[in-house]
Amino acid sequence: SPYLVLWSRLGDYKPEWLDELLAEGAIFECWAHAMCFLPIEYYPLHRRRMLDAIQDGVLPVKWAVKWSRENPKAMKRVRSHLRENGAVRSAEFESKGRPPGGWWNWKEEKDALEALFLTGEVMIARRQNFQRVYDLRERIMPGWDDALNPSTEELRRTLTLRAVCALGIAFPAWAPDYFRQPKKGIAQHLEALAADGLLLRVEVEGFERPAYVHPDRLSQLEEAASGSREPTLTTLLSPFDPLVWDRQRARELFDFDYTIECYTPAPKRRYGYFTLPILNRGRLIGRLDPKAHRSKGFFEIKAIHLEPNIPPSEEVIADLAAVLHRLAAWHGTPDLVVRQSDPPEFAALLEAAL
Q1: Domain range for 304
Q2: Do 84 and 9 fall within a single domain?
Q3: Are residues 82 and 163 in the same domain?
Q4: Other CB atoms within 10 Å distance of the CB of residue 134
Q5: Number of domains composing the chain
Q6: Are 132 and 183 within one domain?
Q7: Residue where a domain stops, chosen among 178, 195, 229
Q8: Can you give the pLDDT of all 354 residues of the chain as single tens digits?
Q9: Are residues 251 and 128 located together in one domain of the fold?
Q10: CA angle in degrees (0–180, nearest 5) for 30-36-42
Q11: Could you write out the three-class secondary structure of 89-128?
């Protein structure tokens, strides 16, 4: 999923580039709002966040601490393996009779590795065929000292400023979820940052509550307000993309109600297993359920759903056909097939354009 987030913004690139940066230590994997790649310069901030989460019992770190306490033998065994054998993938441990499959049906060594990772004892050294390769932090960041971490207050201030900058315009209810920060006191915190000149207060037509903009976004805000900044991009988004991760913001800003259904039992799914929201010229116009069949060389759209207020216009069809060709080619599956759609006639129109 992190690879797709970058593709949505940059278009075609080689995923190996991210893997190389990870192996070089220029970036690291960490839990931000979900699992993300971050610049290594951000590590002190997120290490402070990790330590605070351990102390305050915040998920998913809370799970890691609990599991570690309940499974000391597995933790000791995996620690010893890492020290004696070096970096390891979870696949290198035997399953010991546990059937594969399911999001949480992990063998205990995988649980132990994730617990060590979420509490900071272990980091991701590199990726191997998209699989995580775990190693002790002391090997990846030798000499690291937690005394280098910022204070909790500095952490909150920095993450809030970065969240507002990334969001463009942020209401108090939107700012915390970007980095999964506490919601309590956020309105007062934003107001204090504005009073210090670190944020700008703005009014948004159609919203009664105040909003905030980072000073670095002022020129873009002025362009948008003048009408000279017109959105032209059509792309597909990961379910974990920051643009749609905050469901409340997606509803209020785009009138788009989105829920990822991969955790939902198949009979109860409405749209599909791993549906990708469709961003078209500044609007979220629908979602599609894709599957790349790499061994057979084709990219399948199991279903595509347009929002009720979006007609299948020639522009929408052309934009979608172009982005689907790009995504399919990026996956190495250039042939495209569309199975079904809502509205029903849209599948044939889209296939004709492909």
Answers
A1: 231-353
A2: yes
A3: no
A4: 25
A5: 3
A6: no
A7: 229
A8: 789 999 999 999 999 999 999 999 999 999 888 889 999 999 999 999 999 999 999 989 999 999 999 999 999 999 999 999 999 999 998 766 555 554 445 699 999 999 999 999 999 999 998 899 999 999 999 999 999 999 999 999 999 999 999 999 999 999 999 999 999 999 999 999 999 999 999 999 888 889 999 999 999 999 988 989 889 999 999 999 999 989 999 999 999 999 989 889 989 999 999 999 999 999 999 999 999 999 999 999 999 999 999 999 999 999 999 999 999 999 999 999 999 999 999 999 999 999
A9: no
A10: 55
A11: CHHHCCCCCCCCCCCCCCCHHHHHHHHHHHCCCEEEEEEE
Same domain flag for 247 and 209: no
Whole-number Å distance between alpha carbons of 240 and 164: 18
Contact predicate 330/315, CB 8 Å: no
Query: CATH number for the domain including 192?
Result: 1.10.10.10
Extract the tokens encoding 71: 């499974």
Q: Residue written as tokens 């330590």?
A: 51
Task: List residues bridging with 305 in a β-sheet.
Answer: 287, 342
Peptide bond into 343 cis (omega under 30): yes
CATH number at residue 298: 3.40.630
H or E element, residue 201: strand 200-202
